[in-house]
Amino acid sequence: MATVAFPTKLPGTDSARSAMDADALRRGVLDNLICLQARPPAIATPHDWYMALAYSVRDRMLARWAATIQTYAAQELRVACYLSAEFLIGPQLGNNLVNLGIEDNARAAMQSLGQDLDSLLALEEEPGLGNGGLGRLAACYLDSLATLEIPSVGYGIRYEFGIFDQEIHNGCQVEVTDKWLQKGNPWEIVRPNVAYYVAFGGHAESGVDEQGRYTVRWMPARMVKGVACDTPMLGFRVNTCNTLRLWKSEAIESFDLQDFNAGDYYQAVQEKVISETLSKVLYPNDEPEAGKRLRLAQQYFFVSCSLQDMLRLLDLKGEPIARFADMFTVQLNDTHPSIAVAELMRLLVDVRSVPWDDAWATTCRALAYTNHTLLPEALETWGLPLFSSLLPRPLEIIYEINRRFLELVRRKYPGDEARVARMSLIDESGEKRVRMAHLSTIGSHAVNGVAQLHSTLLRQTVLRDFAELWPERFLNVTNGVTPRRFMLLSNPGLASLLDETVGKGWVTDLTRLRTLEAFADNLAFQQKWRDVKLANKKMLAERIGHVTRIAVDPDALFDIQVKRIHEYKRQHLNALYIITLYQRLRRNIEQGVVPRCFIFGGKAAPGYAMAKLMIRLITGIAEVVNNDASMKGRLKVVFYPDFNVKNAHFIYPAADLSEQISTAGKEASGTGNMKFMMNGALTIGTLDGANIEIRDEAGSDNFFLFGLTASQVDSVKREGYRPAVHVERNEELRETLGLIADGYFSRGDRQVFRPLVDNLLNADPFLVLADYADYVACQERVSSAWQDPVRWTRMSILNTARSGKFSSDRAIGEYCERIWTISPVRIALDRG
Ligand SMILES: *Cc1c(COP(=O)(O)O)cnc(C)c1O
């Protein structure tokens, strides 16, 4: 590991800006309250105190940040650049306190100022710069990269409005604009001097330069300026403080008179609108692509700024362009940044005059691509008219890449024109479209899926021809999540029990949790385990009461499904079971059953009618069940509004049962499943995504498995799925669907849920009814396991004990070794 003595001293270690003790923190907070917030303590609002504390914590990160930047600048090293359209980083204050190791001191400092730390933490607006799993994964990876001391930068977009806030009105989702920047963002440092221009529209002109070389100049219709907005990403108890660099767009001219004079008024206005709205708002679709012009503009904008930034850093270091791939390894988080393949080629060939073949070698060596979905509706393609009008020069480059690539395919598979058409960068089957997954695959040296099953299916389906051509390019890196945020920070009760049982090292080496196995049958330990869980459930129950006015019993089995609302995730399958259970309970009032509380959370894309209807069904069931006096103490249903990282902090630790019930083959990995497991929830799930590996690790006795396998799903579909068969066979299913159709959960309205019921009965690609009976039977096994607390607790302990594989530290370790070939760099901090 390389070490460099860092010459800059921290401001004196006893200073109010850098010392870690409670007294120095207290002085720092008072200083910042006055010097940055301009507030005398007597009239400071809680938010002022939050800001003053946040700045004081940031002060303590800045010397580490500066030391990290300087070390990376001074040394010969490779930097991992993680390109992602989304970073769902969650609230920063609590996490930074934990990583600095000064949570207790901060609590004492604030107490001495008459402030409660937890109340201040609750005030932080979370940066909602992502939709769900993909953006949260990127954030977990930044945490692990810093903790593992890997030189790295996260590159993305600074959306002014992130994912909408969700409210529930009359049982329906209502979207509210997320104004996360309104009260200021203490974690962000804007760098107006780090800015790049990005071209859009116009046309390309070819010519010959003085040396007689063929050159192309892009004559854009408009330029947009991208300005760097940096957020420090501190590792856990290390000096490494990496950067999350998000680009915000600025218009550089208010109107394009040239376009106007030429008479293309519409074009001029359109382009102006684009420059001003480029980084305004995150597209709220989780899986399917919106296919909007502005979205493509966003992607190109942040990718171009990021690559230009790397080239500038290369120049600053005095390295030749040929060394680009030695200095940078660039990971594409899904196809959203895949235009990087064409843009790096453009920057190298057009701007830096690198010969095509050298540029191509550099590009492929630098880039690697992570695929996140096999859902056909989520595979990104762009229609040619849109693409060429927005990005004429990158499109020409894509054509040239394609021409050379198809030549190679034809050489390797002579006469196989069907294969050529399948593999082409341009889909010519209907309206011509650019295939972004193909572009990423052709331009990368490594392509990975995010769980074993997903990587296997990727090779067999979506990228089959490519896996045949380049088998060595394909690999799997199963996702992971950070135990700092999702255990230490959000489940402090569990964390201290683990500290005293297995030692503190688990936080950065999660495999050490294996030691817990020895305590699984220890009754005294089991009691402590249950005490922790119960305390977490009480906290969640309190929040539920506060937010929804529903009273839930912390002793009930907490059965939780939180994730984006989507047909493939099958929240409606869960809903069908609840109705079935409700009918069973009503029929046999005395039956000794397990009291259950079903908790849902998740946002639906605003334009996704079926997902919104699924929310209505859940809230409709909740209304009926929770108001039925005979269900008191037996059954409760809760839809917890606005599922986000902040709310996730107290939801995952309170779960007894984790619902991971997607149609097999549809969930690439899932990461919520891992967060639940670490926090001791048992999983009821299908053999899908990382569930398979979770079950492998936990042991099949400690996992509630049901449902068709991916290959069974496949054959059902090939033979023709007939939902009616399942309805005919199953009296309870008939009754359940009948109640929904009769308006039982919609105050008598028989129209509301018709599209949902019709879909299940006729055109459901996610085979809900095919898995219904097995799911119901499996839920009965869950209930009987719950009735034996010793057995349940043992299973819960074993799940946590065996969750080590799912740390994002393991995942990042694999990326470093197998894709990036990059190693840690220790950041020295001279305390003078
Ligand atoms: C982990 C997480 C997700 C992803 O959940 P899945 O169950 O894997 O779909 C989505 N949103 C938030 C806020 C998360 O923390």
SSE layout:
Elements: E1 2-4, H1 22-35, H2 46-74, E2 79-83, H3 93-100, H4 103-112, H5 117-123, H6 133-147, E3 152-157, E4 165-169, E5 172-176, E6 189-200, E7 203-208, E8 214-219, E9 222-234, E10 241-251, H7 257-261, H8 265-277, H9 293-316, H10 324-327, E11 328-333, H11 340-351, H12 356-366, E12 367-370, E13 381-383, H13 384-390, H14 392-412, H15 417-423, E14 426-427, E15 433-435, H16 436-442, E16 447-449, H17 452-460, H18 464-469, E17 474-476, H19 483-489, H20 492-502, H21 523-548, E18 557-562, H22 571-587, E19 596-601, H23 609-626, E20 635-639, H24 645-651, E21 657-660, H25 672-678, E22 682-685, H26 691-698, E23 704-705, H27 710-719, H28 723-729, H29 731-741, H30 754-763, H31 768-786, H32 789-801, H33 808-820, E24 825-827
Parallel strand pairs: 1-24, 2-3, 2-11, 3-10, 11-12, 12-16, 16-17, 18-19, 18-21, 19-20, 21-22, 22-23
Antiparallel strand pairs: 4-5, 6-9, 7-8, 9-10, 13-15, 14-15
Bound molecules: pyridoxal-5'-phosphate.
Care to describe what's here?
With 832 residues, the protein is an alpha/beta fold. The protein has three domains: 1-75 and 91-125, no CATH class; 77-85 and 145-478 and 815-828, Rossmann fold (3-Layer(aba) Sandwich), CATH 3.40.50.2000; 492-804, Glycogen Phosphorylase B (Rossmann fold), CATH 3.40.50.2000. 47% of the residues lie in helices and 15% in strands. The chain contains 33 helices and 24 strands. A hairpin with a 5-residue loop joins strand 7 (203-208) and strand 8. The two termini are 23 Å apart. The model is unreliable at 1-8 (pLDDT under 50). The protein binds pyridoxal-5'-phosphate (PLP). It catalyses: [(1->4)-alpha-D-glucosyl](n) + phosphate = [(1->4)-alpha-D-glucosyl](n-1) + alpha-D-glucose 1-phosphate. It comes from Paraburkholderia phymatum (strain DSM 17167 / CIP 108236 / LMG 21445 / STM815) (Burkholderia phymatum). Its cofactor is pyridoxal 5'-phosphate. This is Alpha-1,4 glucan phosphorylase.
